[in-house]
Amino acid sequence: MADAFYELDGDRYVPSELTRGPWDPGAQHAGPPAALVGREIERLGSEAPCQVGRITFEIMRAVPIAPLRVEARVERPGRSVELVEATLSDDDGEVIRASAWRVRLQDVEFAPELTSEASTPIAANSASTLRPGYSPAPPSEAHERDFFDTGQAVGYHTAMEYRFVSGAFLEPGPAIVWMRMRQPLVAGEEPSPLQRVLAAADSGNGVSATLDWARYVFINVDFSVHLNRLPSGDWVCLDAITIPEPTGIGLARHGAV
Questions:
Q1: Residue 163: strand pairing partners
Q2: Are 25 and 151 in contact (CB under 8 A)?
Q3: Which of 128, 191, 200, 246 is an S-S bond match for 236, by CB 3.0 to 4.6 Å?
């Protein structure tokens, strides 16, 4: 088995079988390519410390398991915020197009209870998990669950580790799951916090699927990630729900901690 999602070969990234998605044995899951785009954005220089505050990915077509090139540029510079655009391409052209806002970091004083570091106790029956100080049960108290049959022994589903706080792949409905990468994104490199988030971010519609995997496919054509802070460790938690409509359109929404 490969020991990374990608190997760098000159100016191209060669994907391993660990990038394979569940729908097509010749196509990648969108998580690793998104993380690759995030890596390129992080490599752009900046005059002051900054963080990606929002990044949106437009998936132009299935991302093949084939060598890829990544390019990023600052489209609109600014002192406090700047707009970055990036593309991921194979030999036939663009497969993913992304835009991101990078926001300047600066220390600001707030009451602690307003931030994600709030220590005020939260009622167990609170209606929303997206609230200051919310933290689900840690991975050590969560559970492994079986993945649905993809027909492939190796792929993204084996390259990621999953620990469910609630729900499961084979239990339709909302789920809360911790995820982490088992291997580096690029061989020989430690994944950054942003890369870890993006590698997991396209999984919300999978962990909270409401439809029968054997009868339906539900592949994202786009997804956006908003970040008020970056994760502090290897694990990323998705608190996800999927809402399908009879028109064939659906929405997967999740918060992450």
A1: 178
A2: yes
A3: 200
Q: How far apart are CA 18 and CA 161, in angstroms?
A: 12
Is 125 a member of any domain? no
* Pairing assessment for the beta strands 250-256 and 81-90 based on DSSP bridges: unpaired
C-alpha span between 176 and 142 (Å, rounded):
9
For residue 112, is it within any domain?
no
Contact 6, 19 (CB under 8 A): yes
Tens-digit pLDDT profile for residues 175-234: 999 999 999 999 999 999 999 999 999 998 888 888 887 888 888 899 999 998 888 889
- Indicate whether 187 belongs to any domain: yes
Alpha helices in 130-227 (DSSP H): 156-159, 193-201, 204-207
Indicate whether 191 belongs to any domain: yes
CA distance 32 to 179: 13
pTM across the whole model? 0.90
* Cβ atoms 32, 65 nearer than 8 A: no
> Structure tokens of 38?
């995030």
Alpha helix (H) residue ranges in the chain: 31-42, 156-159, 193-201, 204-207
Q: Is 35 helix (H, G, I), strand (E, B) or coil?
A: helix
Q: Which domain holds residue 67?
A: 6-105+137-256
Query: For residues 90 and 98, what is the distance between their CA atoms, to the nearest angstrom?
Result: 15
**46 contacts: CB under 8 Å, gap ≥ 6:** 82, 102
Distance in angstroms (rounded) separating the CA atoms of residues 25 and 21: 7
Measured in whole angstroms, how far is the alpha carbon of residue 21 from the centre of its chain? 14
Who's near 28: CB < 8 A, 6+ residues apart?
15, 19, 20, 21, 62, 63, 64, 65, 156
